[in-house]
Design brief:
- By secondary structure, this protein is of the alpha/beta class.
- The chain has two domains: about 120 residues, Aspartate Aminotransferase, domain 1, CATH 3.90.1150; about 240 residues, Aspartate Aminotransferase, domain 2.
- About 40% of the residues lie in helices and about 15% in strands.
- The termini are far apart.
Length: about 375
């Protein structure tokens, strides 16, 4: 292996390989059932593949417009208007991205400058803080209270400062499965009123909300929408995480700044796949039925663990189920996750990795976006622990 002679002053000295890569590799090495990384083990609808293939065969294989093909942006605008009563201009206020992670990084790079503070809620999804630090910002941590993972808006008020440039919210929340309610959006609007704070709202699981509850999108709150970049993901909605296609919504002034960065760190996104998604979106039942589809999987998986020693926490949205394991082991959660993968044959994610300084409530995260046979096989192993 070649060794570089360059001395590197790392921008991210504390960052190594993500826990998702680590646990998926360990699962593969051990032959374990992988309930760690958040991707389905089942195919998407063949009609989506057919639509993308038609676009390829029709010669739509060259660069699309930087902001995304007009057909897809129009489809997104229609969906958002129908669901949230929000009117976004497809030409100036919607941009198609190479997945949600790129969208989040681009938004942070566009608005956060050296020395700016960005408030995040922990447990915090792992891509936020490295992006903040890469552009010279500083993460400030608000706490989602265990075990319900609800925000404390008074605490957030105490964290605001003249240096606060951005607040990142995530609902439905990864990893906890908690939701922000309408009152939460009102609290956030009141706290940011009269400021220049940008809200970055990660809503990639927007269609996976359970028990008849309506997703509270920032797009549906006019005051917040005026200061927000809203992120969503077709990968989560249509079971195509490997396609890496998402989108952002934002007022024209915000989107103009977003696109200044987007055009140079991505430029644009796969043309035929964009067109395939645009065609597929014509049938709204394909995203409107997602909540019932995943609620059935949630109930099936929870039933598998009903007679286990895991204590299941509430799951109001997303396709993740948290569980406390204190009746099984007193190991730290990372060690417990390694043990469970190696000795029991089920890979999970330790929730402490989402916490600043690794605060550990002895909780692990399962992904139930799997076939029932996979969940049943995992359940059999977990009930034996």
């Amino acid at each position: 292996m070649r060794q570089s002679s360059v001395v590197i002053d790392s921008k991210l000295p504390r960052v190594g390989t993500t826990i998702f890569t680590v646990m998926s590799k360990l699962a593969a090495d051990c032959g374990a059932i992988n309930l760690s990384q958040g991707f389905p083990d089942f195919q998407a609808d063949a009609a989506l593949f057919d639509a993308a293939l038609r676009a390829m065969r029709d010669g739509r294989n060259q660069y699309p417009p930087m902001a995304g093909v007009p057909e897809l942006r129009a489809a997104i605008a229609g969906k958002v208007a129908a669901l949230y009563g929000a009117s976004y201009d497809a030409e100036h206020e919607i941009t198609v991205t190479a997945g949600a992670t790129q969208a989040i990084f681009t938004a942070i790079a566009a608005f956060v400058r050296h020395g700016d503070e960005v408030i995040v809620f922990e447990p915090v999804y792992d891509s936020y803080v490295p992006a903040i630090e890469t552009v010279g910002g500083q993460a400030v941590y608000a706490r989602l209270a265990f075990p319900d993972y609800r925000p404390d808006w008074q605490q957030l008020r105490s964290l605001l400062s003249p240096r606060t440039r951005m607040i990142i919210i995530n609902s439905p929340h990864n990893p906890s499965g908690s939701l922000l309610d309408a009152d939460d959006l009102e609290q956030l609007a009141a706290l940011t009123r009269g400021t220049n704070i940008v809200v970055l709202s990660d809503e990639v699981y927007e269609h996976i909300v359970f028990d008849g509850v309506r997703h509270q999108s920032v797009a549906s709150h006019p005051e917040l929408a005026a200061r927000s970049i809203v992120v969503s993901s077709f990968g989560k909605t249509y079971h195509i995480t490997g396609w890496k296609i998402g989108y952002v919504l934002g007022a024209q002034e915000l989107m103009s700044e977003f696109r200044k960065v987007h055009q140079f760190n991505v430029f644009t996104v796969n043309t035929p796949c964009q067109l395939g998604i645009a065609e597929y979106m014509r049938d709204a039942s394909r995203h409107l039925g997602l909540a019932a589809f995943y609620q059935q999987k949630r109930e099936f998986f929870r039933a598998q663990l009903h007679h286990s020693r895991f204590e299941l926490l509430p799951c109001r949205g997303s396709y993740f189920q948290l569980a406390r394991y204190s009746a099984i082991s007193d190991l730290p959660d990372r060690d417990f996750a390694y043990w469970l993968t190696r000795e029991v044959g089920v890979a999970v994610i330790p929730v402490s990795v989402f916490n600043h300084h690794g605060h550990d409530d002895r909780v692990v995260r399962f992904c139930f976006a799997k076939q029932e046979a996979t969940l049943a096989a995992a359940g059999e192993r977990l009930r034996g622990v």
